[in-house]
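Sample intake sheet
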Amino acid sequence: MREIPHKKTNRVEKINALIQMLLGVIILPYTKDQGTIITISKVNTSKDLRWAKIWITVVDEEKDKKVLKTLQNNLFDIQGELNRLMEVKIIPRISFHLDTTSRYADHISQLFHEIEKEDQGRKNTKTDAE
């Protein structure tokens, strides 16, 4: 018997995009008084659509834990609003996490620049000695 090829669907990606869009609006009232810019950088939904990790980026590094705590304290209300707005059969349970990849990348870039300056300084002192 011949197997029917399955059509590739981007269901999880579509759900991720929908959650990201909706949460951008939903979390605004909870975070507008924080005095910083908050973005939802990534949404990772499990394949069975039961769980979704929401990765947020906070511009002001000093306020990131406060923002995360605010979102976690209001998780029940945020989840409820998401449940009302999503028109799908299975709605993932959300959890918020800090996305620090951009800060880490900046840190690594800064380290490379420092190493480059040290190398330039060594080359300059070496040529001066000759």
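Comment: The first helix runs from residue 11 to 26. The chain has two domains: 1-99, 100-130.
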